[in-house]
Design a protein that fits this description.
This protein has 132 residues and is α+β, with helices and mostly antiparallel strands. The chain has one domain. The protein contains five helices and five strands. Helix 1 crosses helix 2. The chain is globular.
């Protein structure tokens, strides 16, 4: 692993971006690099849907966001919508990112377990998988 030196202002901005998206500073940097130079994007585990997961979606502010919920890590990888190819450590972090991207003027705090719906036609909230 390499070390990069940046000034305090830049680190503060990266830290804030991480708090808003539920990612670490390193993950924020990986995401920025992947967007700026897709040919040298982050490892595949960070860049796309997980192989074993449950399809989920969220409709917010007239936009549909689709993703894959990984029951082992409880992470969500958004696969469609404005945040496609973004991975979040929790359903709530993913929900906050969706709200912040669509409505930056409102408080983005959301319970991701009730924000996301399982994409199987049942209409069940992601929360229904917690009890299993």
């Amino acid at each position: 692993m390499r070390t990069v030196q940046i000034n305090d202002t830049t680190y503060g901005a990266l830290e804030l971006a991480g708090q808003l998206t539920g990612m670490s500073v390193g993950e924020v940097i990986e995401k920025l690099v992947a967007q700026a130079a897709p040919s040298i994007a982050a490892p595949a585990a960070q860049a796309g849907p997980v192989a074993d997961g449950t399809g989920v979606y969220a409709d917010y502010n007239g936009a549909r966001f689709k993703g894959v919920f990984d029951p082992v890590t409880t992470s969500i990888t958004i696969t469609a919508g404005a945040l496609a190819n973004s991975r979040y450590k929790s359903p709530s972090a993913a929900a906050r990112a969706v709200v912040a991207s669509e409505r930056p003027d409102v408080d983005s705090n959301r319970n991701g377990w009730t924000f996301w719906t399982i994409d199987d036609g049942s209409g069940r909230q992601l929360q229904s998988l917690r009890a299993q």
